[in-house]
Amino acid sequence: MFNFAPERVRRRPDLTPMIDVVFLLLVFFMLASRFTQDVSLPLAAASGAASEWKGAPRLVDIAEDGTLMLNGTPRDFDDLVTELDRLTEERSDPVILRAKEAELQALVTVMDRLTAAGFSHLILVE
Fold first, then answer.
1. Residue 71 · residue 59 · CB < 8 Å
2. What is the pTM (predicted TM-score) of this model?
3. CA angle, 60 as apex, 59 and 64 as ends, to 5°?
4. ∠121-113-45 over CA atoms, to 5°?
5. CA-wise closest residue to 64 among 99, 113, 105
6. What is the mean pLDDT of residues 101-121?
7. pLDDT tens, residue by residue, 38-70
8. CA-to-CA distance for 55 and 37, rounded, in angstroms?
9. CA trace torsion 20, 21, 22, 23 (10° rounding)
10. DSSP letter string over the chain?
């Protein structure tokens, strides 16, 4: 028996490109996925109408280093809640927050802690 054709070498499929693509897709989905829940802060938009202010001023300043001041007097957080209780008739009375140079996380922390303490009407000013 004569065979004049060159002998064919059996080729095995190369899986390297497929593994590269799967690895790239894995990295893409890991970077694009979210692992934490976003926290939303409900802020009421200004209505434009003037409302009647009741009681003493309640201006909470948050400094750049995270220290708190109530009406210009430095306070720690527990003292701040005690003083706000003294200055408000109800915990639904407005409290003004001002964070000039403070980090956003410090502002959010103060807002969360005041909300957890029961203060429901927080006004954020620049």
1. yes
2. 0.59
3. 135
4. 30
5. 99
6. 88
7. 777 666 666 666 667 777 888 898 988 888 888
8. 38
9. 50
10. ----SPPPPPPPPP-HHHHHHHHHHHHHHHHH---S-------PPP-SS-----SS--EEEE-TTS-EEETTEEE-HHHHHHHHHHH-SSTTS-EEEE-SS--HHHHHHHHHHHHHTT---EEEE-
Q: Which two structure tokens, joined as six digits, stand for 25?
A: 């897709």
Q: Are 54 and 87 in contact (CB under 8 A)?
A: no
Ranking 11-25, 35-49, 77-91 by mean pLDDT, the lowest is 35-49
Q: What is the token pair recorded at 45?
A: 């938009």
What phi and psi values does residue 114 have, to the nearest 5 degrees? -70, -40
